[in-house]
Design goal:
heterodimer; A: alpha/beta; 2 domains; 13-stranded mixed β-sheet; B: alpha/beta; Dimethylsulfoxide Reductase, domain 2; 21 strands; 20% strand; transition metal ion binding (chain A); formylmethanofuran dehydrogenase (chain A); formylmethanofuran dehydrogenase activity (chain A); EC 1.2.7.12 (chain A)
């Protein structure tokens, strides 16, 4: 395999769009020809060699080409877009659309990436050693096909909307995931080794989500079905299996309804269920009798401050309310 | 003697009331009174005809921060120069002007390779994303008036934001099939707080702030007769969710109106996505529609014009010569936050008052122009402020109501002498940009 080394000369003033940095475009080209490829910044077109030095040699075909990108490319978009074979290695951070619409080959980012990495990916391997932002392996806007094949590995945390509309392939997240994991999923597998924040599998029709660190707050439209022992990474683990999303339509196979499944590792589920309690239950409420008493007391107090009312509630009913809650209570009583 | 003008369109909110009666003096220069309008709409008419506090000529910011009056020609030259020189100008706003002006503005953006974004970016843009994902079963407000007997207000407060919406279309009017008016309608309000709208509701679902998505999905499951997990769903007792589902299913024709409470709280487009799917589900049992409560009087029109010209309703990036759209990358806030733009042009909007501070600082840092009849936080930080005539008061123009019905706004009074409309100003800028780009 032949290697081309690109070294970023300077950080661009605005963001650089470099969709030509893929083994498919580089293959069979001389360094001069690679340097003459276009990159875009706003409405201006530049040469790749204006921003990068090109060293090494490209292979004859994409599968024999490896691209190593050194220097600061944190303001470069579209690295490895639509690549079908070969290898790309980014030594630092990269911006949006890393490996977008990727169909094959291997793309490794040693740092972190911004949003839209691996959107609508159909094959290959995308490995991000740092963190990734939103819409990893999701669909492009308006499309109903998200990730359809291949594998995405993020060793750090991910943002929201990861795996929207996923219908194939695997996303493996080493850290935590923000809200809206696998929304509208119609297949595929997602593994979250940290904590999933919530809204996991909203509107999911089909697919598997493994949450090893638990889910902070489950969707109300998922039902607990059974406990199952499953082998993951060569280790057998017990999982609680939830079926859903009950709000969605589901197809039937051999007379049985096919649901999306969320697997929550047991052991963590106990801490999970504690977190699952809605916040409103923790809130303190006054009974109707107490509210009436407070309403008449308010009339006597004549324009009391929030703190005065709070003290009154604490002295008379022994309830410690938050100031914001008290002010809301006052305004509702005034109505 | 005074003149009376009937059937005037109100250029304030997306309801675009078209039954206003405006009384002017004989010369057609001063507005004496406005009938039928809400307090906000009437105020817009009355205050625009008081010229004493208005800026009538463009102003340029000096080095010490004060403003110096310049001519319209200088302002046109300045605007055309910064737009033609920029690598990626951001052209934001477009919602408080007519469709004709929007169209000219977009032509400038195409020539300069800029980004066009409208106020949907901080408002109903998420709705448009959801519509693209799952479609939208919608109807006009006339149908709501004549047929609807189930009304949901989700995350909106029309009593304050769209004051005549409830009396003209949604709750009180007696229509063709709704002869008993409010008595015939069941109202559901979903809002974390008690509001003036919720006092009119039959069922007030006090959802826990930021958990609309959970409640929507629970409602969908309840409509299908599926079991729900937990006694309290997103702050609402389970029984109330089932009760609400029953009310919705039992109606003859229902409408969901939704506002910024769902479009800009946690989940954003997913909330609307779920709400549209709920509407779709309810159509298995009865007839249901969903309508967005748009804010600015012509924000819908701006989306319509962009959609007609470039295929996308907002956040359109034209920098590469073809239209691209990806909110999250090409939206005004992201572009400013990530410092992707190198010039800012604002028309008919006030990002200075509504954008995050980091974005406002970025507008102040970059070469910028603001076109606005008023003095606003945005005009105070932009290099040049160009005052223009009020659309819908001093110039006419096409506008779109919140349900995508086009309505022609009318001219009522003359603008202050020598003042340009935004259509005239943009046309002049376009001509100048063409000259600059030709060289």
């Amino acid at each position: 395999m032949d290697t081309v080394k690109l070294t970023a000369k300077e950080v661009p003033e605005l963001y650089l769009e470099a969709e030509h940095i893929t083994p498919d475009v580089f293959a069979g080209k001389s360094n001069q020809e690679i340097g003459d490829l276009s990159v875009h910044m706003g409405n201006q077109t530049y040469k790749l060699s204006d921003y990068f030095t090109v060293e090494g040699k490209a292979g004859a075909i994409a599968a024999e080409t490896k691209i190593v990108i050194a220097g600061d490319v944190s303001k470069v978009k579209y690295i490895g877009m639509k690549m079908t074979a070969g290898e790309v290695e980014v030594l630092g951070n990269a911006d949006m659309y890393v490996g977008a619409w990727m169909a094959g080959g291997k793309l490794l980012v040693k740092g972190s990436v911004d949003s839209f990495a691996g959107i609508a990916m159909t094959g290959g391997e995308l490995i991000i050693e740092g963190n990734a932002k939103n819409y990893i392996g999701a669909a492009y806007r308006g499309d109903w096909r998200g990730m359809q094949g291949g594998k995405i590995v993020v060793k750090g945390n991910v943002g929201s909307d990861v795996g929207s509309n996923i219908n194939g392939g695997t996303i493996d997240i080493g850290g935590n995931a923000d809200v809206h994991l696998a929304t509208h999923a119609d297949g595929g597998t997602i593994i979250v080794r940290g904590v999933a924040k919530g809204r996991v599998g909203g509107q999911m029709v089909k697919g598997d989500i493994y949450c090893l660190g638990g889910v902070e707050r489950m969707m109300p439209s998922y039902k607990y079905d059974h406990t199952e022992e499953i082998e993951l990474d060569g280790k057998k683990m017990n999982f609680q299996v939830y079926f859903g999303d009950l709000g969605e339509r589901h197809g039937k196979k051999k007379g049985e309804i096919i649901y999306g499944k969320i697997y929550i590792a047991t052991g963590v589920s106990e801490t999970t269920s504690a977190k699952v309690t809605p916040r409103s239950e923790k809130k303190v409420h006054l009974s109707d009798l107490q509210t009436n008493q407070l309403a008449s007391a308010l009339k006597e107090m004549k324009e009391p401050s929030v703190q005065e009312v709070r003290t009154y509630i604490f002295d008379n009913f022994g309830v410690d309310m938050k100031p914001s809650q008290v002010s809301r209570l006052i305004s509702s009583l005034k109505r | 003697m005074s003149k009376t003008i009937t059937d005037v369109v109100c250029p304030f909110c997306g309801t675009l009331c078209d039954d206003l009666i405006v009384t002017t003096d004989d010369d057609g220069k001063k507005i004496l009174g406005v009938d039928n309008a809400c307090a906000i709409g009437a105020e817009k008419f009355v205050h625009s005809s008081d010229h004493s506090h208005r800026v009538t000529r463009p102003r340029k910011m000096q080095e010490d921060g004060s403003f110096k009056e310049i001519t319209y020609e200088e302002a046109i030259e300045h605007t055309a120069t910064i737009l033609a020189k920029a690598k990626k100008p951001l052209m934001y706003g477009w919602s408080s002007t007519s469709c004709e002006a929007d169209s000219v503005g977009h032509e400038i953006a195409e020539l300069c390779g800029g980004i066009v974004d409208n106020t949907a970016a901080v408002c109903h843009g998420t709705t448009l994303i959801a519509v693209q994902n799952v479609g939208i079963p919608s109807c006009t407000l006339g149908e709501v008036k004549n047929r609807a007997d189930r009304i949901i207000f989700w995350g909106c407060n029309p009593a304050h934001a769209h004051p005549r919406h409830m009396s003209r279309y949604s709750i009180f009017p007696r229509g063709y099939f709704t002869g008993k008016g409010a008595k015939q309608r069941k109202i559901i309000v979903v809002d974390p707080r008690p509001t003036d709208t919720s006092t009119l509701a039959d069922v007030h679902l006090q959802v826990e702030q930021g958990y609309d998505y959970e409640l929507l999905q629970a409602l969908r499951a309840a409509i299908r007769g599926e079991p729900l997990v937990g006694d309290v769903i997103a702050g609402v007792p389970k029984e109330t969710v089932y009760e609400a589902a029953e009310i919705l299913k039992s109606g003859r024709f229902g409408v969901i109106f939704f506002g910024m409470g769902v479009t800009q709280s946690l989940g954003k487009d997913h909330n609307i996505d779920a709400a549209i799917c709920l509407t779709k589900d309810l159509n298995d049992y009865t007839k249901f529609s969903i309508v967005a409560m748009r804010g600015h009087f012509n924000v819908t029109g701006s989306g319509q014009v962009l959609g007609w010209q470039f295929g996308f309703p907002y956040a359109v990036d034209l920098s590469r010569g073809f239209a691209r759209y990806n909110p999250g990358e090409t939206g005004a806030i992201e572009v400013l936050k990530r410092q992707e733009a190198d010039a800012v042009f604002v028309l008919g909007s006030d990002p200075g008052a509504h954008f995050p501070m980091r974005c406002v600082k970025e507008i102040a840092r970059l070469p910028s122009v603001a076109i606005d009849p008023h003095i606003t936080p945005t005009t105070e930080i932009c290099d040049v402020h160009v005052p223009v005539a009020f659309v819908g008061v001093e110039v006419g123009g096409n506008c779109y109501r919140m349900d995508n019905v086009p309505i022609e706004a009318r001219k009522v009074v003359e603008p202050p002498e020598g003042m340009m409309s935004d259509y005239q100003f943009l046309s002049a800028v376009l001509d100048r940009v063409k000259e600059l780009k030709a060289n």
